[in-house]
Write a structure and sequence with these properties.
The protein has about 350 residues and is an alpha/beta fold. The protein has 12 helices and 10 strands. The strands form 2 sheets. Strands 3-2-1-4-5 form a 5-stranded mixed beta sheet, with helices on both faces. A 5-stranded mixed beta sheet has the order 8-7-6-9-10, sandwiched between helices. Strand 7 and strand 8 form a beta hairpin. Helix 2 packs parallel to helix 3. The radius of gyration is 20 Å and the shape is globular. About 50% of the residues are buried. It binds 5'-O-[(R)-(carboxyoxy)(hydroxy)phosphoryl]adenosine and zinc ion.
């Protein structure tokens, strides 16, 4: 079964063709990151206009790269939410029009369900459920108990910023540009993570929630106390980056492993979302998973960590299989997103 996936929830416009829920026949990702770098973050209207320009060429290229035409597609899966409304509408309306004209089933997909499914891309071996998933990006920061391909339970979430947002805001404070995660990670490679002692927010709280806004403030004060960013030498910038990254990744890993003690039925650990590209986070999680004898996965390729349509196609594939013959229309889409998730 071949699914055409479409993803336009934020600043990426992406289309993909995925076969049988795992084999990526094509994946096109058109980013508007260069536009957003100018403003230091995503401007929703700019992202939506950019998606409107790029969506049809992206779909055409995805079909051409997969060497199929629309007739050979069994269903169309599209991110229905959450995300920036203008950007989402571009993807949903395009998918809706194509599905209507070519009489294809249309499957609305929850964006985070897509991120969970990113760990199925290119992998022949199915996961052993239940899987504990830490899914972290610029827009969300969730700890999920993944019971089955289409069944999830949220165990924890951020009470303020997502970790990706903390990286992005931290990079802005440090003058490192956008997106912040890769920029801080690159600086941190050259730095000493122990020179600055940043807080580990929520570490001692009994729940499985996260918080990053206090950490961002601590970075702001550290920079101020050093005389402002223009007076900070290169080595100190690297040390600040390393310390900040260490605090974020410690906070994420601590809650992930606290969850294992509460839910002993967990059989596998997954990382996903944009921040799962972070090498330090992967190292910490791999070490802890190994200590507990649990298999550990993160997306096979970096492009599967950040927003992409292949993961949406996979989530759509399993939703389609779980509800054969079901028809979803736009009025249902928002309700579906709400009903399925929290
Ligand atoms: O999943 P994604 O593409 O978009 C959202 O759904 O938000 O994630 C983007 C986020 C950005 O905040 C970016 O700074 C972060 O993922 N990110 C990273 C790394 N690569 C991307 N954060 C830390 N380390 C990285 N290597
Ligand atoms: Zn995302």
């Amino acid at each position: 079964m071949r699914i055409l996936g479409i993803e336009t929830s934020c600043d990426e416009t992406s289309a993909a063709v995925v076969q049988n829920g795992t084999e990526v026949l094509s994946l096109v990702i058109e980013s508007s990151v260069a536009e957003h770098a100018k403003t230091g973050g995503v401007v929703p209207e700019v992202a939506a206009r950019d998606a409107a320009h790029k969506i049809m060429p992206a779909i055409e290229k995805a079909l051409a790269d997969a060497q199929v035409d629309l007739d050979a597609i069994d269903a169309i899966a599209v991110t229905a939410g959450p995300g920036l409304m203008g950007s989402l509408l571009v993807g949903v309306e395009t998918a809706r029009a194509l599905a209507y004209l070519r009489q294809k089933p249309l499957i609305p997909v929850h964006h985070t369900m897509g991120h969970l499914s990113a760990n199925l891309l290119g992998r022949a071996k199915p996961p052993q459920f239940p899987v504990l998933v830490l899914t972290v990006s610029g827009g969300h920061n969730d700890l999920i108990l993944w019971h089955d391909y289409t069944q999830v339970q949220r165990l924890g979430q951020t009470i303020d910023d997502a970790a990706g947002e903390a990286f992005d805001k931290g990079a802005r404070i440090l003058g490192l540009g956008f997106p912040g995660g890769p920029a801080i990670a690159r600086e941190a490679e050259k730095g000493n993570p122990n020179r600055f002692d940043f807080p580990r927010p929520m570490r001692h709280s009994k729940d499985l929630n996260f918080s990053f806004s206090g950490l961002k403030t601590a970075l702001l004060y550290a920079v101020r106390d050093l005389g402002g960013i223009e007076n900070i030498p290169q080595k100190t910038l690297a040390d600040l980056s390393a310390g900040y990254q260490e605090a974020i990744t410690d906070s994420l890993a601590a809650k992930l492993f606290a969850a294992i003690d509460i839910y002993p039925e967990i059989r596998e650990i997954h990382l996903t979302g944009g921040v799962s590209a972070n090498r330090r986070l992967r190292e910490k999680c791999a070490l802890q998973a190994q200590k507990r004898g649990l298999p550990f996965r993160f997306p096979e390729k970096i492009i599967y960590c950040t927003d992409n349509a292949a993961m949406i196609a996979v989530a759509g594939f399993y939703k389609f299989k779980a509800h054969p013959g079901q028809k979803w229309d736009w009025r249902e889409v928002q309700a579906t997103v709400k009903r399925e998730w929290f």
